[in-house]
Specification:
Elements (H helix, E strand, L loop, with lengths): L17 H11 L5 H20 L12 H13 L5 H10 L9
Helix pairs in contact: 1-2, 3-4
């Protein structure tokens, strides 16, 4: 009798470092293809250092969370065809980059 093993639920790979979080964000939520991720691999440690300097230790994924906004801003700066309006809108959401207007 041939019995198949029960199928295990898929779970994401463990993310141990901030760099792993950034890679997971690029793949899962930003929708980057592997070729695009390979092009920015040398920059990921620099991005993680920048996020740590802002006090961010983990990347959380709800939309418009502070950490997600910082990652999105960094990704916008990494694009070849930069969208100035989107960058401006993200800078306005991040008081660490642009202070509150009075």
């Amino acid at each position: 009798m041939n019995r198949r093993r029960p199928r295990r639920a898929w779970s994401p790979p463990p993310r141990l470092t901030l760099e792993d979080d950034i890679l997971w964000y690029l793949r899962r939520y930003a929708g980057w293809v592997p070729q695009s991720i390979e092009q920015v691999l040398p920059d990921i440690s620099r991005w993680a250092t920048r996020l740590r300097a802002l006090g961010i230790c983990r990347v959380i994924y709800p939309a418009f969370a502070r950490t997600t906004n910082h990652v999105e801003h960094i990704l916008h700066l990494a694009w070849k065809d930069r969208d100035k309006k989107a960058e401006h809108a993200l800078r306005n959401l991040l008081p660490e980059i642009r202070g509150y207007k009075r």
